[in-house]
Amino acid sequence: MTDEIYLNPILWDKAYSIGHEKIDSEHKRIFELTAEVQKYKNDIEKIKKIIKELILYTKTHFYNEETYMRSINYDNLEEHIKEHRKLSKEFTLIVKEVNQISLDQLACKINEFIYTKILHHILIDDKKFHHFRKTREELKNSFRWVSSYKINEEIIDEEHKKLFDIASKALEYSQKDTKNHIKTTITELYVYMQTHFEHEEKFMEEIGYPNLEEHKVLHQTIIDQMNSFIKSLPKIKIVEFEKKLLEYMDIWLINHILFEDRKIIYFQNNR
What we know:
mainly alpha
């Protein structure tokens, strides 16, 4: 199943947007060029030309992204640059195999790289500087479940939506009951998240999902992160609480939905 998921082009989805028009358009173009590799995988000369353009465009995008991060004085710039260099090196190693493996294998490897490395980078690292540049109010106002997060499995989608509804409720409080409201609502979010993961794991068992154990580990990691977050509540200010909750939901949970949960549905639809 792991290999089969990369046999077809990984198409750009607006759910992958980080909220910056230029950067999102460049991300989209990387996906379009990757799809062209799949389209022309029977034409070695055409593929070489597309791959050359893809490498150049990716490097240009990284440069543009780093320039933007400098302009906003992003505090994690150096780490982000190191990640860009690492991704560029990995991509170059794949491309060097152009004359050593079949075009089908090459197209599959490029597809896998864009999905497992570039998309993962977008959904986690790029979203972090999106959060950095936004004010607390801007983040709160844009925080909501959107239909593009759907994986098209009704019960799972409804439970994902409810997680966002509960998190949104945690951000709605008055000055009178702030402390109790936050504690109660975050506890509700924590309990419901555990319940949802149990349902999702049962669903994976029923369809014979081959990566069930790995997915369970990811669920446990998210639960552990939430548990640590709850324990830190008494020590943090309201502003910090809001930022942490929004980052937790918008980066880690959405990434899990778009990156991992969609693999479950792909398997279900192609078994």
